[in-house]
Amino acid sequence: MVTFASFKELRHSRIFWYGFAVGFTINLGFLAFLISKWFQLNSTLPDNITNVVNYDRPNTLTIKAQDNTILAQFGDIAYDRKTITEIPEKLQQAFIAIEDSRYYKHNGVDIQGIARASVANLQSGKVKEGGSTITQQLARIAYLDQDRSWERKLKEVIIAQKIDHQISKEEILQTYLNVVYLGSGAYGVADAAHRYFSKSLDELTLGEIATLAGITPAPSIYSPLENPESATTRRNLVLTRMAEQGYITPEEAQIAIETPLEIKSSPLKRQIKKAPYFVDYVQKEMGKYVSRDKLAEGGIIVNTTLNPQWQETGEEIVENVIKRYGKWQKFQQGALVAIDPRNGEILTMVGGIDFANNQYNRVTQAQRQPGSTFKTFIYATAIAGGMSPYKNYLDAPYVVDGYEPKNYGDSYRGDVSISQALTSSLNTVAVKSLIDVGWNPVIKVAEKMGIESKLQPTYSLALGASEVNLLELTSAYGTLANQGQHLQVHGIKSIVNADGEILYQAKINPQTALDKDSANIMTWMLQQVVQSGTGIPAQIGRPVAGKTGTSDKARDLWFIGYIPQLATGIWVGNDDNKETWGSSAITAQMWRNFMLKATEKMPVETFGKPPGKLALDKATIKLEPLKPRQSYHKVTIQQYTQNNDPPREYRRRRRRRRNYDV
To answer: Are residues 564 and 633 in the same domain?
Structure first.
């Protein structure tokens, strides 16, 4: 045993002073090393860490609708973030009591807490308490990995002090409670409350609050779904700590402890995707605007154009029609898309009725024959080329270079104007008009209006033989609604990162596809289709322009229509291209049902006024008439009677509706 006297003697010993010098030098060197390492690590860490309040984990993505509601989320992310005022005080206190009792007293690192935890762990012979504060835990989540090295721990301390210095305690706690992992796939307290108890935060009981707070140190162990017994034990510890620290009374703690833990689980909200076909479309489009590396940074928010209320309406209408009429009319799928023609924004996209089993998007991926909806491009080109909507053609059985277009029901009307031919969807007149206009002008106009698919220069082009998809067809009709100005359709408004930096912003860049007068004349003609022609079922009590379409053997049933503020297209058919027993009247009715809902709060607007004489003073497109090798009518004009009805021998028996295009 060393006495004071012996120590005095030892003090005069060279060995003592040598040992003292060596020990002092070692400790001083270690201290200098720590200080040097501190500054070295500090130089590699960000100075400004205020962006931690916006933190999301890497590879996380949120897709939002027009009204900012969440359509889908991907990655380890909280669906429902709350402000500190929306988080119940007792819930805040529960986390503080069990995780960081001196939270409001330290500067991000709790020296007393570390010392207390060290003593407790030494006494128990195992790791019983952690020394990391809530601020340190947030630093680790946002900036560091789970490496257990002392260097990582030193970084954690440095960052925690920076966070505490730059951000208020309330913001730190709010961020932590929104991003902390609480087991069973739940991130943040709001998601965990829904996951385990199917409740909002303000509905939680004291016992449920304590259960959530107890999960943090080992989510896989303390998840009430995985280990209810361990979760209950941990809950009781939280309640005891809350009582010890004065957040609740001992009586309140005891009552909660004696209450059985009851779980009522719900699926994670982020796993429930709304408008799945649209979300899938947006995901594919994102890569055009933002690199993979940027997307991988996490916290990416994609702001889209979708109107969620209209989307629900569209999905309901398509699903109901398929279920109600599909079986006996022999169609199994349908699609709907609605576009704002003034800016190209996709407001509704229903790509089918069963995304879970079939992700094929019939709005963007299905290439189908548009039938008579393509006649609009024939006549739009003719009008722009100087043709009057009153120009007459003989509607009679007709053959051109071996190709014989037939009207619905083999019915022919004699002399009719192209406007009347469009209203009644007469096929022979459409082919004759194409011959006078030419393939090339029609294809160019269609492409400018929004058709991107390859169009084949054949006589059957007039009747929609070249395949297109519903999105581009509806977009092209929207060009007419916008008086000849075409805007590229898009579903993404902007893409921003976690810090609010705009990575992509959609730009509205109108292009003139058709002169204004020609577009307005064409709209006037399409209004007649709805007022007195094949589109009558689409009437909604305000100005409407549109066109029905039916491909060969009714394989495709269409209606594409518009008002000045909205263009909507609908398709019904089968993925395997089997014929149906339906007609385009059903798609016109679907269009009506959707538009009635969509326009409930929309003011009535009139279309642009066409020129008084319904013809251009000067053509804006040069026509390129075709020169068939052979063309003829199966009857002569003289054989028609005075009322333009064909003679009895040419009134063929009415055939099944599905064999002809309307």
So the answer is: yes
Please, which residues bridge with residue 570 across strands?
A: 336, 559
Under the banding of pLDDT at 50, 70 and 90, the label for residue 617 is confident
Mark whether 18 and 92 lie in a shared domain.
Answer: no
**Counting runs of H as helices and runs of E as strands, what totals does the chain give?**
22, 16
- Is residue 368 classed as helix, strand or coil in its secondary structure? strand
Collapsed DSSP state (helix, strand, coil) of residue 371: helix
Residue 494 bears catalytic tag: no
Closest CA to 370 of 479, 456, 444, 465: 465
Range of the domain at 141: 80-267
**Residue whose structure tokens are 């064999």:** 659
Catalytic (active site) residue 372: yes
Amino acid at 112: Q
d(CA 315, CA 355): 11
Task: State the Cα–Cα distance between residues 481 and 507, nearest whole angstrom.
Answer: 20
pLDDT (0 to 100) of residue 197: 97
Alpha-carbon 30 to chain mean position: 56
Residues 258 and 322 in one domain: no
* 504 in a structural domain: no
Q: Write the CA distances from 163 to 29, 50, 143, 172, integer angstroms.
A: 29, 7, 11, 8
Q: Looking at the domain assignment, is residue 500 inside a domain?
A: no
Please indicate, yes or no, whether residues 91 and 152 belong to a single structural domain of this protein.
yes
Quick one: 24 and 165 in the same domain?
Answer: no
Place of tokens 């209408």: 317
- Going by C-alpha positions, the residue among 344, 418, 349, 412 that lies closest to residue 380 is 418
Q: How far is CA 220 from CA 81, 181, 183, 188, 432, in A?
A: 22, 10, 6, 15, 73
Quote the CA–CA distance of 81 and 53 in Å, as a whole number: 11
**Interatomic CA distance for residues 528 and 542, integer angstroms:** 13
Whether residue 384 is contained in a domain is answered as yes
DSSP 410-421: G---EEEEHHHH
**Amino acid identity of 565?**
Q
Furthest-apart CA atoms within the chain: distance in Å: 144
Mean per-residue pLDDT, 440-445: 98
Backbone angles phi, psi at 389, to 5 degrees: -65, -10
- Determine the average pLDDT of the residues in 158-170: 90
Same-domain check for residues 87 and 35: no
- pTM of the complete model: 0.85
Residue that finishes a domain, picked among 202, 234, 267: 267
Measured CA to CA, the distance from residue 488 to residue 628 in angstroms comes to 36
Contact by Cβ (8 Å): 419, 525: yes
User: CA 584, 590, 591, 596 torsion: positive or negative?
Assistant: positive
- Per-residue pLDDT band at 304 (split at 50, 70, 90): very high
Give me the number of domains the chain comprises: 3
471 touches 364 (CB < 8 A): yes
CA 130 to chain centre: 42
Among 184, 372, 424, 433, the one annotated catalytic: 372
Return d(Cα 202, Cα 621) in angstroms, integer.
66
Question: What pLDDT, on the 0 to 100 scale, is given for residue 89?
Answer: 97
Structural domain contains residue 224: yes
What percentage of residues in the chain have a pLDDT greater than 90? 74
Clarify whether residues 406 and 526 are in a common domain.
yes
* 338/445 same-domain check: yes
